[in-house]
Design brief:
337 residues, mainly beta, Methylamine Dehydrogenase, Chain H, four-stranded antiparallel sheet, 28 strands, 0% helix
Length: 337
């Protein structure tokens, strides 16, 4: 595999954890007439990093993409014209995670240097400036998310902990123990935090009750990526498959197979799931029927990040390139709304 620098998983656990599962509601699946998988094509390739990309985030409000790389830098890309607007420097090790705040002009970055940095958009010159930093003292920062209800910053760490900070001051509130290996992915849904780890478990944390772990689900491999859609939890598991569970019962609905390498990235858009893999491909799956409708090729390295913005797909790879895919074939597909 091309992506081989991660911590090996622990021994396999049972398919269901011992903790009681949490019932979480669902919503209907919307249709997406602007996203036509059969017509998807690469309309632009962005380059500028000197080494492979490890993390990607999108800010639809400003129509920008952020990529973090093994060259220790973050680049800011304008999707209207494909230009690199800025290179953010300050980390002294690989960039492992990026997250854009939905409501504030903030970018959070996590690195193997153990630091979380906070960058704020400067409106006078459309660039980002470093405004703060947190030394987590927990090894690399592999995952970042924000709970907007409480204005909490949550970070998944290489030392197996989850650290919780209060925004905007970034004061440490909680350190959540429970995982037995590095925490690779985090997502927020219905007041709960869902975490995936190399210890082959997915855990649920009730953020309303002292951040207690209220559910655990064992898998047969390290958990590389998670996303939630229509009351279902979709997880990329270390055996190159994608698992789908109902979140009210933890019953496994299906397993999606087809990738030939570790699945490193997941994103849902409308009634489609897009996955990126170490096999250098993206696959587009139809939610519900779970059929693979399209395989996208063109990257020369593993696909480590996938984002959807305005009906278009942005993929980032450890070949150091970013590709923009859409259904129209238009070379400048992004228009800020």
């Amino acid at each position: 595999m091309e992506y081989s620098d991660e911590e090996p998983p622990l021994e396999s656990e049972d398919e269901r954890g011992d903790d009681a599962p949490l019932g979480i509601g669902s919503s209907s699946i919307p249709t997406s007439p602007l996203f036509r998988p059969t017509n998807l094509r690469c309309v632009k390739t962005l380059s500028g990093h000197h080494s492979g990309i490890r993390a990607v985030a999108v800010q639809p409000r400003t129509n920008r993409v952020f990529t973090g790389s093994y060259d220790n830098t973050i680049k800011v890309w304008n999707l209207d014209d494909g230009s690199c607007e800025a290179t953010l420097e300050g980390h002294v090790a690989w960039i492992r995670s990026l997250f854009c705040h939905e409501h504030e002009p903030l970018l959070f970055s996590g690195s193997d240097d153990g630091e979380i940095k906070v960058w704020r958009e400067q409106h006078h010159n459309d660039s980002y400036a470093l405004t703060g930093g947190i030394q987590a003292n927990a090894g690399g920062i592999l995952a970042i998310t924000v709970d907007y209800e409480r204005e909490w910053l949550l970070c998944g760490c290489y030392d197996s902990s989850i650290q919780v900070y209060a925004l905007p001051g970034c004061d440490l509130l909680h350190i959540l123990p429970g995982h037995r290996s590095a925490v690779r992915c985090l997502t927020i849904y219905n007041g709960c935090l869902i975490s995936g780890s190399y210890d082959r478990t997915v855990k649920l944390w009730d953020l309303n009750d002292e951040c207690k772990c209220i559910g655990s689900l064992g898998t047969r491999g390290s958990v590389w990526a998670l996303c939630v859609h229509d009351g279902m939890l979709i997880g990329a598991v270390g055996d190159s498959s994608i698992k789908v569970w109902r979140m009210d019962t933890w019953h496994q609905v299906t397993t999606l197979s087809g990738h030939r390498g570790l699945v490193l990235a997941l994103a849902c858009h409308g009634d489609r799931l897009i996955s990126g893999s170490d096999d250098r491909c993206l696959r587009v799956w139809r939610l519900g029927s779970w059929e693979c409708e399209r395989t996208l090729t063109g990257h020369n390295g593993g696909v480590v990040g996938v984002c959807i913005v305005h009906g278009n797909c942005v993929s980032a790879s450890n070949d150091s390139f970013i590709k923009v895919w859409n259904s129209t074939g238009i070379q400048r597909p992004f228009t800020a709304k």
